Recover the amino acids of this structure.
């Protein structure tokens, strides 16, 4: 086995690799950028070396500097993790040419499968069904596509060199085609250094099923079962689970065979994942499936496979890279129970999942579950890298119990200081489509839109107000007399929405005044974690949590957070910033769509910016004339900068 392993990555995956290496007695060397000098993976490794500025292309993508460190520190092997250089065949080839082991497949396999067009050509003779499509580079531009009246919509446009959900767009009709092509090209060039794209038939509905394979250097290939990754938003996986209980075993067996055939066709070694889209519209035991791509690296969602099989996949990678035979036979691969993984992102689901930056002021993990995280309390989340903070992995004897455990853990999870998708994950995990195991690739968008529009009802505000007052007074019966007819007032905040509530005690009832309305509240019962009361003749019952100045109300799969505002002068700045486009996050201006003096409609796109490896459209907050466009293309902008002023 190796003496010293460089982990050419950051965040949770770097921590994950380091832990296994240390268990095997391998010394580890981490690399870090300016932003990461005090990060968890740096503190966990035996050694750490500075690799460059925060910008990824100057640090984690800086091949020359990484090689200099590897030689200077005399490493035996380099593990690339996922993302960054993990599927860069040039990097892999150069690592091997230096006499260092690359923990992954041979560079030729990476090159073949790293381009979706080449991958399809390479395995076409293996008899694997593929979604029909073609490369745009062959057409030398988009004009021929725009004039092609035979195209059947919807289409899927994606980066030929892409992966991980980056550089992908669904096109529903002809009017969206040109804008989507240009957007995908820009994202592809930014993320992968190659703007070649391919156009495919978009299979609506469908299940995204991937098969994990392992192959050694002696011709042995086995599958490690499958994962269901259908819960996706913008082709970014959100919830993953294993096994895929919604797919018949007969169909899964066919996919296992296809995955192994794909691997043999390109002489694959080490771990890899072959991804398929399954058309579930057919008969249960006769579902069609199509090859999508092969990821020639460790997957983000690998922990759920580890959970059900009891196998350390990073250890398996290291053993194969060290020239060992597979220690597991196909008959040894047996599933135990069910596992679900939730990806925790620094983003705001209520503001179109805009990435969130800032300092993590509090980080409280749920207990007795697996957590693969690369951040700690006090860390600063910046815009240079992917917004994923880490992963929550649960495992139980069956899917129902695993889902219940996931729900409990998401309620227990606390991250403060930045916006996260914890509430949305809770909603998604409790969503009937997920509970009934019928989630499809295009299901999450509608759920996300519904979640974004959900607002707290008066009954939720009333619950929070009652809880603050009752719990502060410790259920003293004298509270009714103390309040008297004068009453008391509270100011609550829920997701930037402020509400002032006045409560007056009268006999054994409360009178609430909020939003220019009044309510009689009676029959109030508060027990451990549950509040129940009668409001205008209706019985209201919610679960709740109280922590200092925060009350969380749980209602039918949705979490409503209310903060008690001590500063009564605090107010929304909507009026102050009306007519101004404010940068929601630090990033780079990619394209400016309007000029000074132009008339714009409310909601019309003005600027395209890039942050955390994704593109975002910034739109006009009102109709009017552009008074001043304050930025230029390629300019780096900071969060809260004023970018456009509209009269």
């Amino acid at each position: 086995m190796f003496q010293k392993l460089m982990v050419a990555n950051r965040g949770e995956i770097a921590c994950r690799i380091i832990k296994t290496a240390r268990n095997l007695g391998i010394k580890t060397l981490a690399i870090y950028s300016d932003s990461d000098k005090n990060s968890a993976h740096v503190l966990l490794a035996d050694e750490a070396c500075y690799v460059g500025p925060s910008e990824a292309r100057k640090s984690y993508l800086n091949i020359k500097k990484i090689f200099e460190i590897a030689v200077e520190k005399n490493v035996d092997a380099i593990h690339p993790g996922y993302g960054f250089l993990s599927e860069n065949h040039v990097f892999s080839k150069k690592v091997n040419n230096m006499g260092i082991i690359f923990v992954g497949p041979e560079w030729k396999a990476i090159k073949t499968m790293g381009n979706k067009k080449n991958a399809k050509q390479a395995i076409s003779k293996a008899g694997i069904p593929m979604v029909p499509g073609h490369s745009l580079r062959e057409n030398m531009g988009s004009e021929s596509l725009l004039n092609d009246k035979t195209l059947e919509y919807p289409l899927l446009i994606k980066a030929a060199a892409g992966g991980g959900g980056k550089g992908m767009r669904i096109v529903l009709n002809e009017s969206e085609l040109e804008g989507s092509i240009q957007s995908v090209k820009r994202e592809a060039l930014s993320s992968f250094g190659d703007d070649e794209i391919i156009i495919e038939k978009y299979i609506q509905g469908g299940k995204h099923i991937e098969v994990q394979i392992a192959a050694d250097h002696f011709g042995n290939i086995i599958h490690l079962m499958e994962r269901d990754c259908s819960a996706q938003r913008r082709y970014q996986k959100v919830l993953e689970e294993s096994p895929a209980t919604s797919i018949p075993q007969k169909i899964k067996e066919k996919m296992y065979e296809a995955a192994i055939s794909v691997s043999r066709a390109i002489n694959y070694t080490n771990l890899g994942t072959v991804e398929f889209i399954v058309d579930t519209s057919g008969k249960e035991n006769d579902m069609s499936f199509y090859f999508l791509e092969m990821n020639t690296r460790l997957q983000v969602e690998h922990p759920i496979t580890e959970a059900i099989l009891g196998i350390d996949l990073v250890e398996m990678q290291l053993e194969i890279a060290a020239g060992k035979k597979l220690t597991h036979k196909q008959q040894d691969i047996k599933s135990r129970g069910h596992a679900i993984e939730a990806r925790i992102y620094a983003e705001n689901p209520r503001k179109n999942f805009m990435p969130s930056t800032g300092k993590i002021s509090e980080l409280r993990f749920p207990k007795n579950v697996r957590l693969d995280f690369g951040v700690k309390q006090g860390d600063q989340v910046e815009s240079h890298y992917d917004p994923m903070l880490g992963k929550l992995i649960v495992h139980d004897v069956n899917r129902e119990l695993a889902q219940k455990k996931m729900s409990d853990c998401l309620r227990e999870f606390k991250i403060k200081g930045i916006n996260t998708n914890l509430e949305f994950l809770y909603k998604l995990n409790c969503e009937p489509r997920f509970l009934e195991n019928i989630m499809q690739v295009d299901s999450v968008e509608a759920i996300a839109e519904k979640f974004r529009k959900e607002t707290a009802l008066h009954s939720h505000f009333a619950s929070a107000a009652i809880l603050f007052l009752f719990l502060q007074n410790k259920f003293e019966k004298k509270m009714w007399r103390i309040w008297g007819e004068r009453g008391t007032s509270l100011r609550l905040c829920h997701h930037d929405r402020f509400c002032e509530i006045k409560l007056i005690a009268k006999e054994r009832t409360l009178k609430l005044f909020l939003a220019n309305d009044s309510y009689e509240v009676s029959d109030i019962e508060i027990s451990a974690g549950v509040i129940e009361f009668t409001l205008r003749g209706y019985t209201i019952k919610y679960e709740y949590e109280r922590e200092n100045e925060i009350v969380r109300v749980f209602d039918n799969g949705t979490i409503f957070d209310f903060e008690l505002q001590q500063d009564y002068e605090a107010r929304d700045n909507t009026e102050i910033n009306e007519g101004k486009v404010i940068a929601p996050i630090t990033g780079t201006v990619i394209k400016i769509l309007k000029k000074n003096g132009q008339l714009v409609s409310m909601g019309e796109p003005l600027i395209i910016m890039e942050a955390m490896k994704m593109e975002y459209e910034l739109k006009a907050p009102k109709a009017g004339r552009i008074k001043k466009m304050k930025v230029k293309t390629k300019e780096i902008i900071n969060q809260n900068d004023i970018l456009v002023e509209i009269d």
Remarks:
- The two ends are 67 Å apart (CA to CA).
